[in-house]
Amino acid sequence: MNEPTATQISQDPMYAPYFSDCLGALDGTHIEMYIPLESQPRYQNRKGTLSQNVLAVCNFDMRFVYVLAGWEGSAHDSRVLTDATASKGFTTPAGKYWLGK
What we know:
Layout: H1 7-10, H2 16-19, E1 22-32, H3 40-43, E2 51-59, E3 64-72, H4 77-87, E4 97-100
Parallel strand pairs: 1-4
Antiparallel strand pairs: 1-2, 2-3
């Protein structure tokens, strides 16, 4: 993930001053699922449906550079991101950042 800044950012005077250190974007999404009754409580999200929380990270070429799936729907996005950075190999080079929703 130590890629150079995308050319559509670095060569555009409208964006370069603001996004020159940005690598892309990240966000969490919930994917509905069906699981056995005994496992359902922890996969119930805040809307009451069963889902798994998935973290997806894309670069400016709209390519996925990292995906972490499998977290319970009840897990908050910040918890999933913390796990990704602490023990699942997601890194951000010093001085760089990701846009997040």
